[in-house]
Amino acid sequence: MLRARALLQAGCWCVVFGASAGLAAQGAGALTLADRARRADRVVVGRVVSVSPAWQINEFGDRLIISTLRVSVDENLKGPASAAVDVEVEGGTIGTLTLHVSDQASFAPNERGVFFIRRTPRGTFAAHLRGQSLMKLDASNRVQGMALTLDDVRREVGAANVR
Description:
By secondary structure, this protein is an alpha+beta fold. It has two domains: 28 residues; 127 residues, CATH 2.40.50.120. Helices cover 26% and strands 37% of the residues.
């Protein structure tokens, strides 16, 4: 009887914590492009030149694969102008081990995108709002998986008065 009660109580806690985690992950929903731009330190449009995965310890003490994307900058939509920027994203492959992060786009060399980035406490740049911060562009300058174009992004970021 005591064992059944303990199992039921543990099951209830799993449901409560699972629901809380799901709601926290959803947050208040996706932010507008203008809000993302206001909160980011930089917004750039560019092409990934290289991807360099490495083991790193995150701010929570977890050992993860972090890939540094070397981005050749085509346009600086917010922040200081630069020809290139390194952006750290969770995920990547080291040897036979791959870490895929479901809420972030992964990039390969020669892929283009819009990057909303923030400076980390270590002084590097990282995706500002995880999956909402990395937007892959296709050959016709459309954001992959969305009805947005690069012109839409430029217009929204410009309307945020972020320069």
